[in-house]
Specification:
Blueprint (H helix, E strand, L loop, with lengths): L3 H36 L7 H29 L6 H6 L2 H11 L4 H22 L5 H25 L1
Helix pairs in contact: 1-2, 1-6, 2-4, 2-5, 4-5, 5-6
Length: about 160
Amino acid sequence: MPDDSSRDAGQEAKTERTARFLALAGYAPILVLVLWLMGIDAGHPARQPTQALLESYCAIILSFLGGIRWGLGMVFRGGGSPRDLAMSCIPPLLGWAAVYAPVPYAFALFAVAFAAQGAWDNFAAHSGIAPPWFGRLRILLTTLVVAAMVLAFVATA
């Protein structure tokens, strides 16, 4: 019969795989919208709606990431704090501000916000506030999303 530690390790591995799958699935709309944005000319009638979809989706994802940090701050596993709770409100506010920033600067603001959030999340994993796999996943996704925001900036500049 397996001991508790091997069951816990198996559950954590399963959670990591599920989180990776869902996170990459969540990245797919960003990738599709950025590729579409890069492929259509400035006069295309779908250009403005594509930009708006990309901006709103990025704002939603930043809110989601802020919610993750809110949850980590409430758990107090290795260092959550009231400061973490307060800081977790910043990503949704940056996302909201970026939606109203002029294009292409909105995408620059999104790139900075996602990079900062990814670094903060990675530090949480290294300090024990979040599991180690969370830091690895956030670095991967941060790299993908920031690259996509740079491409969106270039495509709309």
